[in-house]
UniProtKB/TrEMBL annotation, chains A, B, C:
Protein name: RhcG
Ammonium transporter AmtB-like domain ranges (all copies): 50-408
Main location, first listed in the record: membrane
Membrane topology type: Multi-pass membrane protein
Pfam families registered for this protein in UniProt: Ammonium_transp
GO MF annotation list: ammonium channel activity
Source organism of the structure: Eptatretus stoutii
Length: 461, 461, 461
């Protein structure tokens, strides 16, 4: 320590140029939509987007800012960065996503019309960036993260356009567009930024007692609000309600399964907080695409059972193997929570779509799969599967390219020894926590004896 | 320490068998209801259950997973277990509750039809299990908790059926079905599992500074969302809104009263975090049954005043007495937050129902008390009171029976000395916290002197 | 230490008298409104206040109790007081606000009719009190805070009446009525209560690592739910949705700007948690008045850019200057988060109102500015500006008067040396945290060496 990076030039400059660009482009392109423009008539009573979407939007908003932010506070000395960089790059990403998604999807007479659904979609896109952040957590500067966000939002929007408009797949909860893409993007970035010096475990790349509890705040808000995430932009009515129900039961089953597997792989049956914090959520990722389909409640629970199993085993076996054999460092294990479960979600969606029929969906088959209107009889499953593969490839290729941009040695990355340490980029209060490493078990035992001897003599004050 | 239990066999086995049973039963019985089945027509605009219930459901969901979970993190070394076991048993309970409640209330042509209201009711039932968990917090293994959840959900559903379908009482906020039943159930379980070895206070059965703040996260989310809890399944319209208003003012008054009493029973007028974390909520428990009645806002505040008083005094005097004289150990003091206030809620509901008349309710008397349709002129108050007594008895008897099941020495319970300690069932990071016990006040004073002497000489780095 | 105040007489007495007064006045005045009274017909389907307001209310409720409460936990030894006193005075304030606002705005046949909107408005008023609390955080007793709340709610309601009913300005998000008034009120109180003994920085008037993370819980819930805050009482329909959109983009831009400025004023470009916790929110305060106007999305972002800049610079330069030259101690820097941004919000609202025309608002100009109905052609901008000035003056004068009431030496204020210390008013667990101050960097370095030497020899247990 002692030679922390100085980013007083880079951070303000890059962030200011990006923010200025946003404001100018908003000035040129962004206008209120019909449900927010004062000069437009109000939506019919009981039918406004606000009524059907706003509560869900707020839930998604909490997932993005508190959920992802606190989930990453598990590191002992990286809490400021986890929650702070999450805050910064999500705030930037939602602006840029409004523009990118607007150009692709909501352009009318050369203007982007924004409403409540724009906010949800912008938050979704930001989630994808935060997933990638999880892979490189502790090893990147905020400048790198802003640049990554800029490019990732751009590529995300292209990929989303390919899936939703060209392949015409459905992906309500974003298994493919958000999780599979974002996850593999992050893993590719991390591969390019590989730091051999961190091969041996870094002393600060682990949790302490309280940081694990902070992380549970993130986990639980993600878990509780995921039914809103997977249904936030579903077609109103039965599809939206079904997406909620499917996600709810998937998560319940996934949580029980995670505890089963976590206990099973420990020599005395203990549960591991890493598993509880992450694998409990994998089912919701994997049910994202199929959530609004007729997956059935027990089908949802089977998804939870499978993903809880695979994700927990992934944390135990795949993450170390990825680092050892493929040189992919993955701080939060996003491979097991987003990348792989997201791809599974694509497969599950493809299977569920392939077996969709009027017997199950009745006259509303076309409401759930609107592409059938234009292309009757198309292979729904095939196109869904293509969407998953495209997302995976776009993530890997995009992440690799962006990784090389981030590798330029001008973005203020910290040295290996200062990784996973808030002091690199934050004013940190003087005391506490560092102390925690310093008392060894031997000293502890000794002091404990002393303490027990002295305690009865201490007068209550 | 050193001989922590090994539950590598029991936990995975019991949890897997239970989860497998859930999936099979869901496969046989559970289907989407009319508002979530793709083949059914949509509800009329502005009239869907989603619109009236979903925001409330999400609030209840937060109460169950973050509210109860974090409220119990107040112990210094039991945060993983508090929030983790809460997560596990709630996730299991909502599945089993869907089935049990479905068989009793939503069976149609041999199938259970689930919708948004099913999720709310399942969460309600899980809350009852979590209440009982509070009594035995720190002294049970996760295997015992899963088994308790299985039986408690079963008995809960029977009791709920007796109250709602046989006695035809109303209990929107669950004072009787959830709190009174769950509270006395937990106390009975704890009585059967009495550990004489813990009679003398365990060194870890208390809070530390940060754990008390974590617990406030739980308290506040419970407190803030309780208006949603008490109104989540009320009849839509005026009843639902009234339940919100009554709960809001009850809680406001209860919080002020709790501070009054807490200060009054301390020798220099300090407030006690235990009271603030718990007694502030007792009013909402006690207003649960009457919340949708014409209790009036000032009536609600009187409920808050009385319960804030009784609950705080309960923590000060009743909880220690229960342990001393009745051998009931009650870690979270659920007697004062759920059991007793829940029974009071039954009484308050009975009184409010007894005085209900068309003068107050107008032509809508039957909307609020639907049992009058079938049984005009029945003693509303008498039946409500019967519901409270039945819930109390079912809780005591059920808890006693289940307690004996949990007493079998095969469920991996920790030894007395390892109680209130996460290391028994969790992989815990190496350092921190344990240290905290070891520095005595005497040493502290000494070191502080040293610190102040040295501080000016430390160069800023 | 050792001579902590004893408030066993004052706190219970003052709080009980106030609570008793509330219950009596509620009994005399408060009744259910038409949407919560059982004898009244239900609102038309899809048109109830519940549907349009309840989710927003719950968001505001979270901001008041968790947002403000946790934002103030940043002090190392004042977390119980921050979250606990916040809880107490907010609970009292919402009761008194219901009465005061009811007398001014909702009196019908001598009765105050309460509904969902009453709860929102009561929470708004409580927010104003909590803002003032931020200025004196750590230096007042709970008795003083209750008395302050009583008078501040009273004066708030008078000021609100002047603005909304006499000047007929609009102020949906309360830039003027809540933030400008509450902020200057708190600064004036703090000026009167000036403690010269705390001129030199108090050792406990700063954060520690974990307390800064707790504070981020407050920041983020305020930030995420602020779109609900600014739209919670907007006219339903396009105005409400527009207020959401404007606040969302203001906050995004303000957060990026705060990081830019925070980095720019540090010698090696680090970000400061104080700025991130507070200045990121300043934009939302300043957009409160104009949120429901046609500010445009890019206009909102410019507001965020300006306020993020001014607020961060305020924390760096104005707060220390206020203390040094004007003897205004401002623990949370509410000058930079509420007082000044609130006044800016008044100005921004005045400008936006001044340029409002039918070209932009169409036939709905009068929906957004209802005062035009009675006074066609009035100077909207002039009246809005008058509202800001009145709020500022009412805050300063009211705060000064109330400050003198609080100065009586009978309210149990702590001595200078016991400021910023929970032990003055709370039962605090014995161990932890105090320790944290005692290990100097020099010792740390030494112990770290020891630890690294010993670590490999410690057997895993």
């Amino acid at each position: 320590m002692g030679s922390f990076p100085n980013i007083r030039l880079q951070l303000p400059l890059v962030a200011f140029l990006l923010e200025l660009l946003m404001i100018i482009l908003f000035g040129v392109f962004v206008r209120y939509d019909d449900e927010s423009d004062a000069s437009k008539p109000d939506a019919l009573t009981g039918n406004s987007t606000f009524l059907y979407r706003y509560a869900s939007f707020q839930d998604v908003h909490v997932m993005v800012f508190v959920g992802f932010g606190f989930l990453m506070t598990f590191l002992q000395r990286y809490g400021f960065s986890a929650v702070g960089f999450n805050f910064l790059i999500a705030s930037f990403s939602i602006q840029w996503a409004t523009l990118m998604q607007g150009w692709f999807h909501h352009l009318k007479d050369g203007k982007i019309l924004v409403g409540v659904e724009s906010l949800i979609n912008a938050d979704f896109c930001a989630a994808s960036v935060l997933i990638a952040f999880g892979a490189v957590l502790g090893r990147t500067s905020p400048v790198q993260l802003l640049i990554m966000a800029f490019f990732q939002v751009t590529i995300f929007s292209v990929n989303e356009y390919i899936l939703l408009n060209l392949l015409e797949v459905i992906d309500a909860g974003g298994s493919m567009t958000i999780h599979c893409f974002g996850g593999f993007f992050g893993l590719a970035v991390s591969r390019v930024l590989y730091r051999p010096g961190l091969k041996k475990s870094h002393p600060k790349a682990s949790s302490v007692y309280h940081s694990d509890i902070f992380a549970m705040i993130g986990t639980l808000f993600l878990w509780m609000y995921w039914p809103s995430f997977n249904s936030a932009i579903s077609e109103r009515g039965v599809n939206q309600t079904r997406a909620i129900i499917n996600t709810y039961y998937t998560l319940a089953s996934c949580t029980v399964t995670t505890c089963i597997l976590s206990s099973l792989v420990d020599e005395r049956g203990r549960i591991n907080m890493v598993h509880l914090q992450n694998s409990t959520l994998a089912g919701a990722v994997a049910v994202g695409t199929a959530a609004e389909m007729m997956l059935t409640p027990y089908g949802s629970m089977i998804v939870g059972l499978i993903l809880g199993t695979l994700s927990t085993l992934g944390y135990k076996f795949i993450t170390p193997a990825l680092e050892k054999y493929l040189h992919v460092q993955d701080t939060c294990g996003i491979h097991n929570l987003h990348a792989f479960p997201g791809f599974c979600g694509g497969i599950i969606g493809a299977i569920t779509a392939a077996v969709a029929s009027e017997a199950t969906y009745g006259s509303r088959l076309h409401h759930t799969f609107p592409s059938l209107d234009k292309h009757p009889g198309r292979s729904l499953g095939g196109f869904q599967m293509a969407g998953a593969v495209v997302s995976l490839c776009m993530g890997l290729v995009g992440g690799t390219l962006v990784g090389f941009v981030l590798k330029f040695p001008i973005w203020g990355a910290a040295s290996d020894e200062d990784c996973y340490e808030d002091e690199a980029y934050w004013e940190v209060p003087e005391e506490e926590v560092t102390l925690i490493h310093t008392v060894t078990r031997k000293e502890q035992a000794k002091e404990e004896t002393v303490a027990y001897e002295l305690e009865p003599q201490i007068p209550a004050h």
